[in-house]
Amino acid sequence: MPPLRIALVDDHPIVRSGFRQLLEMEPGWTVTAEIGSARELGAWMLGGACDVMVMDLTLPDGDGLVLIRHVLAQRPGLAVVVLSMHDGMLFVQDALSAGARGYVTKRAAPDELVDAIRAVSAGEVYLGTDVRTQGNDGEQGGQEHLLPELTLREAQVFLLLARGHSVARVAATIGISNKTAYAHRANIYQKLQLRSDFQLHELALKRGLVS
């Protein structure tokens, strides 16, 4: 089989180093790039190459969901695996909607990342064990259960606004029109009795949805 080239996108050098050692133990696998920011990713995209990209959703200068869409717009055939601290089904669904083929949380056993890369490189979709468990339970897991007043889509918009996204960026991230995003925000304000994005962020802090 031809060598498998992997790029690691995470802002923590120790995390990247640890996973690099793990992945390069697999025969024929090589980590061709360690990338720590959206800016570095943009520069690497000009000439770098890989078969699988492992990406954290939280970078200091960019949102992983937006970056996935940008990367895949330039390289539609690239297999992306999300490796994230977030285990809520909202994040999983948004990542898959953006084009990711795999989703593994950072609490998972290290071998799960190996399994995910092996699966997506073969054209399959892979969800980590803890993510699959949430889905099989038929319950909302992680963060979204703290927003029972909202629909699933409204909860997605709420979380993105709480993370500091503009309405236009929310629309681009989850693939809806600006008009629809504004309508969702208006519904959120009404249901949660909010008057501003500042109050929305304060509520997100109170409920432990953002740090």
UniProtKB/TrEMBL annotation:
On this chain, the residues bearing 4-aspartylphosphate are 56
Q: Name one GO molecular function term.
A: DNA binding
One GO biological-process annotation of the entry reads: phosphorelay signal transduction system
Q: Which InterPro entries match?
A: CheY-like_superfamily (IPR011006), NreC/VraR/RcsB-like_REC (IPR058245), Sig_transdc_resp-reg_C-effctor (IPR016032), Sig_transdc_resp-reg_receiver (IPR001789), Tscrpt_reg_LuxR_C (IPR000792), WalR-like (IPR039420)
Record carries keyword NAD: no
User: In the UniProt record, does the keyword Protease occur?
Assistant: no
Gene3D superfamilies in the record: 3.40.50.2300
Q: Where in the numbering of this chain does the HTH luxR-type domain appear?
A: 143-208
Q: Which residues form the Response regulatory domain?
A: 5-121
For this UniProt record, the keywords arranged alphabetically read as follows: DNA-binding, Phosphoprotein
Alphabetical list of PANTHER family matching this protein: TWO-COMPONENT RESPONSE REGULATOR (PTHR43214:SF43)
Record's protein name: Transcriptional regulator, LuxR family
